[in-house]
Amino acid sequence: MKMAIKRAIIVAIGLIAQIALSLALYLYFIEHIALINMFFTILSLLLILSLIKYSKNYSYTLPWIIILIIFPIIGTLLYIIIGRNKKNSKTLKRIVKSEQSSKKYLVQDKKIREEFKNNSRIRYLSDFCGYPTTKNNDVTYYPLGEKAFEAMIQELKSAEKFIFFEYFIVNHGKMWDSILEILEEKAASGVDVRVMYDDFGSVTTLKKSYPKELEKRGIKCEVFNRLNPIAGVIMNNRDHRKILVIDGRIAFSGGINIADEYINVKSKYGHWKDNGIRIYGEAVWNYTVMFLTMWNSFRNEDKDFKKFKYNFNNKPKENGYVVPYAETPLDEEVTGEDVYLNIINQANDYVYIFTPYLIIDTDMINSLTLAVKRGVDVRIVIPGIPDKKIVYTLSESYVEPLVNAGVKVYKYTPGFVHSKVFVSDDNIATVGTINLDYRSLYLHFECGCYFENVKEIEDIKKDLVYTMKKSHQVSKDEVSFNLLKTIWQALLRLVAPLM
Question: Which of 293, 397, 434, 473 has the most crowded Cβ, counting Cβ within 10 A?
Fold first, then answer.
């Protein structure tokens, strides 16, 4: 733990040093202040024009524009270090190459394509995002992390060929130790066990040398995007996915990471409300390709992904449409947000939402409020006990306009909500890792699973309704105007897209 904290401090110092060095050089050449100011003013103007021309979301780029206008020197330095073109990074270039190569494995069944040709929501995911829609799947929804964990342990014990494991956070404790014991046993018996976790997500929980420890136990391990004191934008793009694939026949995903708070063994924030999904069927292939795409961008060892595709001789019964999909900050589509917006914009009766963070752009605000004006019952459940107070204060700044517009916002009084779920009109839902915040929607690698006319959608709705009964609905009186708080929240909104 101490070593992990030291690593985090070193990385933070490295980033601060980059900015300090840039300013030091500026001060060193202070006698040429006029030329320096002119140079940075012109450079900041070019950056602003570029942002205006190429921006797809001004809620995200406007803070950069404001900072570049007010502070051309500091703003330009920050943008070069933090916000420059993602594809300039060698790491991200490898991921882009791997993503392009893996597209050939994601092929849509033509018969199913003909069925949903008039369904714009599914057609978007299949035709524009490249994630095949499937029908033969057995789906299980777990309303709590501990329930999903029990099922994960049971399925892990049945693994015969391979286990693919990709999570944002891994932390020692009952959950990880139980999983690790099985992974080690399976690796010793010849099962191909691969573990990937995010370095930032696990920086305070795992040692830098931990991958070597796993490799000694026969478990292949890759750390996503190792923290580097001299790195810039690449450090801001994290792997926030939660994927477990077993033999290509079973996949788990949802909100839970691998740490004891996610299964309520211990939690500093009251009851931890999370969820998970288990899929048995053809949709597992999408998750398999997602994992292999990321894995092979770091360790290029699989020339043909097809060897990992499971042959379902006895296919599950048709159970509506199931579409696992990935969100990547490296392509043209903002898939996660677009899936959410499509659900909201096409809802007729209701939209119920779980999200731990509520930091949204104008597109999302307008869609939610317009849905209310159409007569749609829009409800959002957020935590009652925050895990990050500043982020929670920022989230509350969005509660005010939503509540005043008629959106029903609930705070989960027993504790912290970590689920990321949308359900609408009894026949549409999505469950995954994508928060309603800028990091998930624009910066992170994420994943979700879209369901339509799947019978388990009823279970998802029941979970939200039950949770709302245990929550407190925010009234208009509670979001009344407070000058100092409003100023503070406005400042937080300004920097939110940059973080």
Answer: 434
Per-residue confidence (pLDDT) for residue 314, from 0 to 100: 80
Dihedral class, residue 81 (left if φ above 0, else alpha if ψ from -120 to 50, else beta): alpha
pTM: 0.89
How does strand 428-432 pair with strand 421-424? antiparallel
Q: Do you know the residue count of the chain? A: 499
Cβ contacts of 389 within 8 Å, gap of 6 or more: none
Look up tokens 């494995």; give the residue: 105
Under 8 Å between Cβ of 485 and 315: no
CA pair distance 415, 472, nearest whole angstrom: 12
Please report, for residues 105, 308, 327, 335, the alpha-carbon distance to residue 131 in angstroms, rounded to integers and kept in the order given.
10, 17, 11, 11
Within 127-281, where are the H helices?
145-156, 174-188, 210-216
Q: Residue 341 and residue 371: Cα distance in Å, rounded?
A: 10
End-to-end CA distance of the chain: 25
Measured CA to CA, the distance from residue 229 to residue 248 in angstroms comes to 38
**Residue range 445-496, pLDDT digits in tens:** 999 999 999 999 999 999 999 999 999 999 998 887 778 878 888 788 777 7
Cα–Cα dist 51/361, whole Å: 17
The tally of CA atoms less than 13 A away on the side-chain side of residue 142 is 23
Domains of the chain: 2-84 (no CATH), 90-322 (3.30.870.10), 335-498 (3.30.870.10)
> Which run of H or of E encompasses 485?
helix 483-495
Chain-centroid distance, C-alpha 134? 23
Top pLDDT among 264 and 44 is at: 264
Contacts of 21 (CB under 8 A, 6+ apart): none
Residue 41: its H or E element: helix 33-54
Report which of 494, 10, 103, 12 is spatially closest to residue 290, judged by C-alpha positions: 103
The tokens for 438 are: 């800028």
